[in-house]
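Private note to self, pasted from the team thread so I don't lose it. Backbone tokens:
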């Protein structure tokens, strides 16, 4: 039986699911693990998944699933953003029933808070929404989210990562009001899925981790989109290496 320990994480972990928004972020990782294609998560949606079983050094095993939001059939691009991510995550949870859900992917970082291209952040303190501005009593706090974010401290060393506040929105380039939000909240990583998946994981009572790798710097003069496209493949490969370390660590939690 899986037990939730004092650090809020399951022990042992028998089944872990990873959700990526973009194919480029997670295909190499899934291929490295030798996972088998399981097809569509739902016949009406492009979301799809893979799964497999990894042998542990102690004779045990860990079941792993990797899900993607899929390619939009009308535009031929990855379905990025909060709605496709939450839908795919919900379907993956229902199909695979994991002990732990991980949202992995890329993000924009902030040079002023020490980020560099390739930095890895684990979601800490809170998951926020920077573009859910609802100036109504009660709804304003709901819009921002402040969904609890935590992880075992030893994971920072295991994955050579840093703790960071992660903020989610559905636009790639931030507006002036959002830049003020990032400064006020001390945001480390700007991305497009984590807070939505965190809220869903909370609804399911499921331990959740967000792992984000920096492809571009929000507060750097180079256009974000140029840096993102140039660094996506290299940073995604580095992200995959850290996720393998996470799996190795999970295998020790018996």
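Design output:
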């Amino acid at each position: 039986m899986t037990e939730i320990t004092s650090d809020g994480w399951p022990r042992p972990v028998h089944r872990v699911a990873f959700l990526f928004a973009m194919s480029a972020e997670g295909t190499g990782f899934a291929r490295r693990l030798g996972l088998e294609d399981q097809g569509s998560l739902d016949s009406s949606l492009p979301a799809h998944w893979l799964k497999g079983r990894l042998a542990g050094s102690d004779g045990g095993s860990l079941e792993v699933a990797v899900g993607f939001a899929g390619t939009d059939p009308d535009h031929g691009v990855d379905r990025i953003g909060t709605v496709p991510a939450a839908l795919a995550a919900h379907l993956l949870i229902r199909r695979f029933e994991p002990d732990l859900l991980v949202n992995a992917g890329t993000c924009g970082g902030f040079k002023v808070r020490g980020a560099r291209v390739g930095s890895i952040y684990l979601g800490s303190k809170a998951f926020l929404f920077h573009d859910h501005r609802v100036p109504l009593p009660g709804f304003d706090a709901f819009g921002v989210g402040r969904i609890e974010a935590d992880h075992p401290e030893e994971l920072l060393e295991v994955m050579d990562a840093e703790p960071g506040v992660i903020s989610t929105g559905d636009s790639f380039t931030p507006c002036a009001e959002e830049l003020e939000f990032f400064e006020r909240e001390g945001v480390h990583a700007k991305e497009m899925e984590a807070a939505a998946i965190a809220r869903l994981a909370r609804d399911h009572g499921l331990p959740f981790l967000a792992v984000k790798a920096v492809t571009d710097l929000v507060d750097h003069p180079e256009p974000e989109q140029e840096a993102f496209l140039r660094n996506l493949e290299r940073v995604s490969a580095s992200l995959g290496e850290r996720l393998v370390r996470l799996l190795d660590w999970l295998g020790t939690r018996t």
